[in-house]
Amino acid sequence: MKNLSKTIVLLTSLGFGCAANAELRINGFANLVGGITSSDDTLYGYDDKISFSEDSLFAIQLSGDINDKMTATGQIVARGSEDYDPEFEWAYITYQATDNVSISAGRLRIPLFRYSSSLDVGYSYHWISPPQSVYDVTFNNLDGLRVDYSNYAGDWEYNIQLAAGTYENTTDVYKIEGRDTVALTAEAAYEFFKVRAVYGRAKTSIDVFGLEGAFAAFEQVLPTKLYNDLEAVDDTGVFLGLGLEYDTFDWFVSGEITSVDTEKSYIKEDIAYFLTAGLRIGKFTPSITYEVKESDDGVKFTDQISQLPAALQAQVIGVQAAFDDDEQAVTLGLRYDYATNVALKAEVTRYTDDLYENSDANLLRFAVNYIF
Amino acid sequence: MVNIMLKHTLKKLSLTAIILFGSASVFAEVVIVVHPSNSASIDAKSAQRIFLGKEKKFSTGKEAIPINQVAGTASRDAFDNGTLGRNSAQVSAYWSKLVFTGKGIPPKEVADDAAVIAIVSSNADAIGYVDSGAADASVKTIPLN
């Protein structure tokens, strides 16, 4: 009920309520995804009992023209992983300044990845969900501004996006905040070829609830400089990304590589990438995807740590390992275009973890993607 | 000698005919239609840009209003596969990306060739495509090849 009234207030403030003469466009999309792992395994929230709630979602998008230059857009998403509690994930107003430049303000998606903008619209890509090693970042939506510039020269098409603002994301495990976030994306396409590069930066604070005790203890015993270096409060986090794609519509191959690094914190740099290839044979799109996520092996701040008593050294090194990753996955997938607004998909994923061997798992998922 | 050459040419001709009619039987041949007063220069490339929402204006600077046909008509299949270079499901996936990022609104869809001609003949900004046999004098036709 609280959510509903919040929704109405937001809609009204976006101009849906008052623009009686404007055309209101209603679109939506839904992903119904079921999955089950091999016995006693868990992966991406699934276990060996079939579940439909991890990746399923229903969303409605409302948009209306305020005048011939301005459009208001709101997207309400109900995720199975959050008990289908509807939430306003996007709400923004776009001003079409010229034919090539648009400015959007409100809550919008940070353009970090090739598929960031349509991340939740399963129908728009060949997977059931984009490779999680790369796409599963803790921040996706931004409260702020985005400027989009697009143009073409000869057979080259290009666009540049600049986003700025703040983000916040709280889960059961952590709370992350990014102030002064800036993301610059450049994309160029020539016939079947597409290249994309991203640079992002934010003053990042990460509070992992399970580590609060450890950090409270560190604050008492560690030298101030080392403590400040370790804690993840207001530290500059940098995101780098590069994507390449070749898509002839009969077949495609693409990949993305990203780096996420908050240098002055206990969290190590994470490098992730994926490669995917597929064929489009009539209504069928078989594909294969290989993905990797690895964190830097080195221990940070070794000069300072070496001066600590041995027992304390082990704890400081231990906390740096909290988010270590060394994992790979291979996914075989099949998409079937049932209609121009319905796709059926099936995927098998083999996941291997080189740090925690008993995390290895096989996952079978199937999905219905619908758009209207 | 002449006989052999003639035979050879005939063989070549019939082969060409098979290729031509063979490809024609897969998809209908469509032409672009605009209002008779529209003087913009339009080719397959600019039609593609307009129907994919990448271009919102004609070369004359006037607003372009693309009129699409519903999925499944012979003209739509021919236009999607021939001019847009992808099947209707892929076109729909392309638009879903734009719609749900607030970057575009897909063209209005109408039922058939006749409905396209009815709109285009009465709207100076409209652009559509129809089977080459369906166009009449109320619209200006532009071949795609």
Automatic annotation (TrEMBL), chain A:
Keyword Cell inner membrane: no
Gene Ontology MF term list: porin activity
InterPro entries assigned: Gram_neg_porin_domain (IPR033900), Porin_dom_sf (IPR023614)
Residue ranges of domain Porin in the record: 16-354
Entry superkingdom: Bacteria
Keywords of this entry: Signal
GO CC list: membrane
Keyword Signal: yes
Protein name: Porin domain-containing protein
Source organism of this protein record: Paraglaciecola mesophila KMM 241
Lineage: Bacteria, Pseudomonadati, Pseudomonadota, Gammaproteobacteria, Alteromonadales
